[in-house]
Design goal:
By secondary structure, this protein is α+β, with helices and mostly antiparallel strands. It is about 50% helix and about 20% strand. It has four helices and three strands.
Amino acid sequence: MRRFKNDDSGQLILIACVSVTAALLLIAAYEYSTLGTGENSINRENLNSYYFYDSIRERYSRIYNDPDYNVPSFENDLKNFTILHGFSVDFVCKDNNRTIIFIDKDIKIEEELEGGQCP
């Protein structure tokens, strides 16, 4: 230990070890913070809003046209899911058609889906 205090090369080695340890801790903290968010959430700022809308539309279309599912319950779950991920979705029933209203950043998409049943 005396060598580290009195020798310049020893101090450089100590500084290098501390720097590498700090870098590893920062990388580990970043990886841990993005662990549960999914692979696409890490670069969410770089993804197009249409990517998220297509994902919501695809999930909803599958459930909406299948009479075995409880559509209102699924809509509630999907609304809560979207709020957690930073965008908003709503479902409006007109006649026998549903309208998906999707809002993200500075974009608003409204699309009417035909078929299925309104509860």
